Amino acid sequence: MEPVIAIAIGVLTGSGVWLVLRPRTFQVIVGLSLISYAVNLFIFSMGRLKVGAPTFTESPGGASALADPVPQALVLTAIVISFAMTALLLVVTIASRGLTGSDHVDGREDGL
Amino acid sequence: MPDAKLLLTLMLFLPFASAAITALMPAGARNSVAWLAGLTALAIFGVGLWAAPEIYAGAVLRAQHAWLPEYGLNFSIRLDGFAWAFTMIISGIGALVVLYARYYMSPDDSAPRFHAFLLGFMGAMLGVVISGNLIQLVFFWELTSLFSFLLIAYWHHKDAARDGARMALTVTAAGGLCLFAGMLIIGHIVGSYELDVVLSSGRTIVDHAMYPAALVLVAFGALTKSAQFPFHFWLPRAMTAPTPVSAYLHSATMVKAGVFLLARMWPVMAASDYWFWIFTPVGAATLLIGAFLAMFQQDLKGLLAYSTISHLGLIVLLLGLGSPLAAVAAIFHMINHATFKASLFMAAGIIDHEAGTRDIRQLGGLYRAMPITATLAMVAAAAMAGVPLLNGFLSKEMFFAETIETHVDSAFDHVLPYLATLAGMFSVAYSLRLIDQVFFGPKAKDLPRKPHDPAIWMLAPAALLALMCLLVGVFPAWTISGFLSAAVFGVLGALTPEYSLAVWHGLTPALLMSVVALGGGTLTYLGLKDYLSGEVEGPPLLRRLSGRRLFERAIAMLSWRWARVLEELLGTTHLQSQLRALVIVMVLAGCWPLLATAAFSPATALANVGAWLGSTWLSPGWLTSSVPMVGMFDPALVLVWAVGVACAVGAAWQAKYHRLVALILMGGSGLATSITFVWYSAPDLALTQLLVEIVTVVLILLGLRWMPRRDELIADDQQTSARLRRLRDLFIAIIAGGGVAALAFGVLTSELTATIGDEMIRRAYPEGGGHNVVNVILVDFRGFDTLGEIIVLGAVAITVFALLRRFRPARDSFAAPDQKRFQIEYDSIRYAPAKDPINAHYMLVQGVIIRLLFPVICAMAAFLFMRGHDLPGGGFIGGLTFAIAFILQYIAGGARWVEDRLVVLPVRWIGAGILLAAATGLGAVPFGRPFLTTAFRYVELPLFGKTPMASALWFDLGVFALVFGATVLMLIAIAHQSIRVYRTMEKASVREKAAARNRGDA
Prior knowledge:
Chain B: Pfam families: MbhD, MbhE, MnhB, Proton_antipo_M, Proton_antipo_N. The complex is a heterodimer. Helix content of chain A is 64%, strand content 0%. Chain A is mainly α. Chain A has a single domain, classed as Helix Hairpins, CATH 1.10.287. In chain A, helix 2 runs antiparallel to helix 3. Chain A is elongated. By secondary structure, chain B is mainly α. Helices cover 72% and strands 3% of the residues of chain B. In chain B, helix 15 (324-355) packs antiparallel against helix 19 (456-474). The chains are: A mainly alpha, B mainly alpha. At the A-B interface, helix 1, helix 2 and helix 3 of A face helix 24, helix 26, helix 27, helix 28 and helix 29 of B.
């Protein structure tokens, strides 16, 4: 399955990067969300992919067979923080649109 | 006897502490701030008096505190005779200036601000003179530049004050940076930054190969600070400062820092020809130019400023000569100049204050109006001119005597006595002019105010200083000799020469020079009198040569034109381009290790990849996972990601014109991510991702309302340039995505060695009391991290809330969306009008279900939270679930309906969450454990059974509360905008109607 996950991470990143480079604020918001999926998956996969080995010490098979819990712990908070950042970005963009009348990232339409 | 170390440290910190207190006092408290500042200065003076007996005995008082011991840096105070003498000048004149300023400053000026700056400057200057460490000295040196900037620009509504302050800061702070570099070199040469070590290093510095570099850098620092030619131009411009500031900074203290430093380093740096050839010519040039220009100033303070420049040049010249006797004369003149120049500045301030102008041509005959002021100014000006029986005469005599001596045998050395006499003549001429044209001659007409002597307390400081000029001049042996010998011994130590302070040395060549200077000066003045009374500004010859103009041009070049050019070359105001640059840099950084590998070439890389593909993927065994690191393909997950990938690409494609579609597709990718988490043994992540997905979609849906309609093509999109841009971005995106995919694949197929995770799994239960290792890591092992993260979350939520409080939507978003209008129209035909028509009949069935589900979801949240330590769940997941329970009610019933029935106080939840988490962490401290140590045991709870009660549970409860509060706060804040906008519209329409009615009436 590793190639599939790697490709998935790559496509999420690529789509996210493309959107982040676009001129409209909404595109950037969606792009950053896609990138955060990719990054979270990437960090998570640093612990390698293990099926049926959730990190509960009571599970059969003993501690050595469990998945790596550290990337999971890192990603868990990252998911919540990226939600907060999405919210902040969204509010900034709608406030900027209110002030400038434009949803272009530069706050004016005559972008490059 | 009090502890010297403590006392010295307190002395240095006292002015800063007073400054901080003063700054907080109310603007009207003029007397209290003056008292505080004055007492602070007197307290420092008192410490000086206390130290006097030991200093007179030749002792050096020290205080050291560890600062950065690993770098060998201490916070070090070193009070020797020289530093002590300056301490007395700084605090003594400081106290007088405070008293003077109390009467000088008008009630409209902010007294706390003025005194806070003045005290801060006093502390910084004190720090310069008593620092026992070179780095620390430079720190305080730069601090004096900063406070001088603030003080010069005190009347910041005046252009000239701001310009003068900026120029002074630029010149002196740039010099300070040079000094810093020079000090670093000296520290490198000597091997220590401690002044004690440096001063006892003998000829080490002079003999070192880097001595010239260090000397030039230190010289830049000292010469800029002491306003030496060609850096002198900032000082006259700094005269825009209030006069007490000039009396303090520009006569007694700040400008003396440069010559102080030269004298300080004199014993270890002066023994070389380089020293002589830098400082003597510069000093001589400054002495002459300053004195010459001073004669032609029409502004009273300008005259004093140029005279200060000239006198500082004299001191620099003396120090440059390199003989101990010359150094004695320099130190003596530093002290004398401080007294008579401060007194003169105060007198100038009084004249300005009482007569309303400082223009010498307008003034005249003031003796009758203000006799006391005139007398004081005459004494001080005579001291400045070097008239016998005043202190200026004594040090000038020593100066003349020293110039006659031969130092470095050269033509320049032989010309020096003549230059000195010439400068002496100029000095006499401008002093005479100051007295004659201001106080005598025809009485001035059309003065802005009617002059008279000021209040006694305004005169007292100037009087005290003038009295000192006189006493020192008449009885030098009784008054100044002990003070001077302490100061001299501090610099020269064993080198201290024999010198005599007698008023009468017999008929010496120096006396002859004095007589020539006095006579010549008088004649010069009489010759120039008519020229000076004319309309001409400035001197006949040097008017065109303006360091100031050069400086301004250079600054304009640097900060305006070049900056503009650079900005145009490198900068952009387009965020899109900036983001693109960021992404490209990231991609390049990712490729760097590959490109930097010497063996790398595209051909071999391709060949390698090909060979690897041939051996692994294309061999028939890969389907059955015969390659150890590539796990088995699972058709279900492949399908999930086929959808997930399609969703991501679709979202990227549709986000411009079809936002809702893009949002739904984005959610599809999120779901695929969530499924992957649960597939690969991370149920906690999957739950979190799923819940976050829900709130994110709701959040963005709420935001969509405020975005512009986009139902027609943007014309520019069809242009070739736009197409090319998209093509380029596509290329970047493919490179970035491909790179990340390759990287991920590389990591995924490499062997996982032992990680810290194994250790955490082993310890999770015995030490953390939980079976769910991820949760134990979050609330226990890495609890501090989590604490930081929830604080970030809370801060973001409050930022969102704050941003939205002043939210003004764009005009075209005011009106309700089409769907809503349609619904309202439809409802208003069929049903009786309701207060909130949209919610009366909207989503009726779903609404009922959602309301019924509310307790269920709440219970679910509690359940997920409680079991979190052992099974999937925990504070983050529970908090999100709980938030969703509320958000669903908002969706079903509308904000008004919910808030009529439920009290939600998200900000309090956030606060409670942070407090609870932090308090749990602190709970470990009384037991002698580090912050956030966990204790746990099992307890029997009704209904729940045997439950682990770790103290981490309370921490997790804090996380729960915060996550709930933050999520709900952000969503509610956005949701409320729809209600607010109608209120705004109603108000606007009421206003418009009222306006229309008014027009109709008219």
